[in-house]
Every structure is written in structure tokens, then in C-alpha cells.
Amino acid sequence: MQPDTRRQPTLLGSCTLATTAAEARYRISYPEFTRRSSRVIALDDRAAAIVRGMAGQRWDGGHFLVFESAVPDDALLRCADGGTALLSEELDGADAVVMVATADANAEAASIIGDACAARGIMSAGLVVPGAGPVGEVVSALRPNAMVLVLLRNAADVPEVLSALRV
What we know:
Number of domains: 1
Shape: globular
Number of strands: 7
Oligomer: single chain
Distance between the termini: 59 Å
Strand order of the largest sheet: 4-3-2-1-5-6-7
CATH superfamily: Tubulin/FtsZ, GTPase domain
Number of helices: 7
């Protein structure tokens, strides 16, 4: 009887076991991703409800805030615990800012946050959650103020996108 010489598919988990010592030295051994220090900022009341709902969940390095008002050379933010903070203080040590907005978003807020991020070299993203009204204005307001702009299908997509960004 002849041995079966047909090629069998390699299972995903078996690739690691099948490598030789010579092949293994090319494998990348890198520790898990470094922890991010992200700020998630709601730009309007409906977005604030979404952001506050996520603040109670477990996130690695995410800090959830709501834009309250512009102040001279800065902005006042409301923290999830009800306290207040200045945008300039929140951006110290931050490596990513995600602005969450609906059709009711404050264009001035997007501009203030986007300019502050650009001045500090912080990656900024805009997530637009559609609703009953058109989102054209908020997209236009966020476009020049966010390095990444995503129009979501619904509010349930926000946590998934934040997870992908490692918030």
C-alpha cells in the first residue's frame, strides 16, 4: 500500500508548531500593544447620551467627556462623573481624540477640538451617528477637523469602532 502523499491543509494553530528553529527566528515577538490614552468627546446632547453610556464600561485608557462650552483660548468639558475639565488639561498626555457627533453637533466644538489636536500632533477622529435629520452639516464641520471621519450606520457601532481604535 502506497502512503497518502496528497497535501493536507495546514490548520491555523499548527503553523506555529510546524516551524523550524531557522524559520522561528523571523517570527515577530512583540509584547501586547501599549496602552492608549484616548479622549472620547461628545459634541452634542444625543452624542453625550451615547458617550455617557459607554463611560461605565471597561476601557483601556479611554476617558469620556462632553463638550460644554468654549472659554477664552480653551474649552470646558464635562466628565462622565459630573466634574468639569479644560480641554487643554485633558489633551496633556493624550494620544488620540475621538469626537462623537450627531446631526445636532456643535461645529464650533469640532473646530476648537480639531485645532487643539493639530497643534499638539494628536490623532483626531470623528464618528458621525446618523439620526432622523441629515448629517451633511456635521460631516462638513468635522471634515477639516478630524484626520479620520467615519459615518456610522447607528449608535451601536460606536463601541465597536472605539475597540478597533484601542480606546
